[in-house]
Amino acid sequence: MVVERNVEKEVEVEYARLRIPFGPVHPALKEPVSLRVSVRGEEVIDVDMVLGHVHRGIEALAEGRNLIQTLYLIERICGICSHSHTTCFIQALEEIGGIAPSERALYLRTLIFEMERIHSHLLLLGVMAYEIGFDTLFMFIWHVREKILDLFEKITGNRIHHAMNTIGGVRWNLTPQIASEINSCMKEMEKAVKYVRDIFTDGTVEKRICGLGVLDYSEALKLCVVGPTARGSGVDIDVRRDHPYAAYNDLKGNFSVITRRDGDVHARIEVRVLEIFESINIIRAILEKLPEGPIRPEENVLRLMRRIPEGEAVSLVEAPRGELFYFVKTDGKGGLRRLKVRTPTFSNLIGLKSMLLGCEIADIPVIVASIDPCLSCTNRVTIVDQRSGESKVVSLDALRRVVREK
Amino acid sequence: MLYETLRSLFRRPVTVEYITKPGRMVPVPERFRGKLTYDRDACIGCMLCVRVCPGGVITSAEERKVAFNISRCILCGQCAEICPKGAIKMSTQFEIVTFDKNGLIVK
Amino acid sequence: MNAAIALIISFPAVLLISLLFEGIDRKLHARMQKRIGPPVIQPFYDLIKLFNKGRVIPLTASVRVFEIMPMIAAAVSLLGASILLSGILFGLSMIGDLIVVMYLLAMSSIALMVGGSASGNPYSAIGFSRKMSMMIAYEVPMFIAVISVAFGSTPSLAIDRIIKFQANLGLPLAASRPSMSLAAAAFLLCMPAASSAIPFDIPEAKTEIIYGLLVEYCGPYLALAKIAKAASNFALTLLASIVFLYIPSLLWENAPLNSGISLSLCLTTALLIMFTTMTVPRTILARLKIGQALKFYWMVPLTLSLSSIILSAAGL
Fold first, then answer.
1. Distance from CA of C108 to the nearest CA of A (A)
2. Which terminus of chain B has fewer Cβ atoms in its 10 Å neighbourhood, N or C?
3. C289 in reach of chain A (CB within 8 A)
4. What per-residue confidence (pLDDT) applies to A384?
5. Domain B27-106 belongs to what topology?
6. Alpha-carbon span A57 to A59, nearest angstrom
């Protein structure tokens, strides 16, 4: 993001103006981003953003590995939406290779997808409570989230990095016992989330989140924000409905896209809370409709990998934070020629500046958290220098040099 | 909120103490992916696991067997899945941390 | 001479009790959040750890002020609490010690403010301005409530006179007259802000300005700041318990002043007051913004304390 220099602003010398660095290390941030905030009294008058603190060079790493190794690398782009990343990547591979996963595999993918959405949204709601200084709500919400994580552990063997997807299918099947456990968990979840919703409409909480960080409809369209951030501003987009993938085509009748018109922090939170209910509906529908059949091809993955020819594909999924985009180009020998990832946070961060202007210092963490930033997803090769307004691309060789020096 | 908090004051807390004694730890589900175990006799040296391992954990060793450097393992379980003889398994042991780096190399 | 010895004896006792109070507060807070929580003596572990750590002083700080202020803060708040405690233990008192205690407690916050802002950190600067506004907000109703008490009791500003007054009356002061109940309500409403617990921890907001004034303090200095905070919280709760809610007065006619039973009753009351005015609000409420907090304090406790002083002037 390049922010234009404002010449007048630099000439202006004001006694009461204070420049505070918000981040890269700050208790309100889960991941490093640096906001340089200028304040007058308690009011924010200017914001600069510096990214690139957690750049890991994943795209370049992927180009030196084979497809199966890349699959697990991709999963580690993000700890929260790991399944979205692998699904998006695998979809592109399956398109290039002409491999069609079975119906049951698609349904299971969707199941994990929606469970991941619940756990991601609950995480954000908890963080949100923490930002407004409501530690008890934070503990309560994360207690609810723990149930979903236990389910993940039962289904896939790990809490966060599920390693569910494989080429042409999924790796773990659903037993009837686990299915009934999911059902009872969803019942508890519905009750718990209703309680959370009631607290978020409670007096002191509402005082902190209503009318803050407004991003109106036209601004949201102009800045191309995605996901719950866009839906909170009234932009009616959702990849699950607009470009159905996995099993969403069959499940179209089981969920609706939630939008709110206010565009403030409260609207974005409300969208997320209501989306949890939609996800619960989808999961119930999946458990009902789940078709029988194999979950993966008979062949082993290495043979499948070798069958994927040279080609390129584009893939889209709706991650919990919004639209996730992959461009994959294979070299026909089981490797990758190019991988491009555009994560939802990258689109949403741009909206942050117009939300932050004019708010108070106390609101900064609340607003930053309300777009649910996932910065280690976002930080990739380009580094933009905000102060001089120029952007430079760091080459892989330069990066390797830096790494070796360290 | 007040009611709920006051009620939880007299209930058992949700969190549990971390107990390191074996047998008293929190139970893990059966699909849990923990530390790798390697059955050297069953291994036929096909080297499929070396090719799928994303972390560079597995290297070929003498006598057409493999060696594992667990400190690099990301617990994806792909090697256990691809092994044709079932020589590699994921145990349910989740305490992998140790003071001895060489103890993490399984042969 | 006697007074000095009594104060010196009660210094370690105050330290011990105030840290225990903090530990109990943390344990209850954790249990209300469904957590196991730290052991009750966790504050002692914290202090031992902090005192063993190195001293780091930022380059931008003015060193002397930065170093001395935590010591002053800890010393004055311990002194304030020991005056109260030795008042109950040994029946020691002097003219106007109520004002002295209030002054010492305000002094401890001010010392931390000055020390923190001497660090040169922009977050401390914001914390300083916030703490300043907060102090204006809560100190005014608090002082007015105390003055109203002084008028309404004997009239006197000596703590032992107020205690004797309650003992003779056979009622805690808060229940004696409407003006006194209003004063007690105003004082108790000011307690969360004075202890900077969560709805009013605006000057130290962790997620907003990274502990504000304390951001640059570490090691022994942070330990001293923690002692200052714990001791002043303890002093506030004890003050409220002996001035407004002197429970022993209910039990006996002319209750003995310096007995162990009345001391333990006072401490129990103090603990209850801490639970209701610090632990519960910080568990069930979200942090307010500075404007909202100011509005609340100017609206409710100030009105209460002003009406209390008017009522007590009218002899009610």
1. 25
2. C
3. yes
4. 42
5. Alpha-Beta Plaits (3.30.70)
6. 6
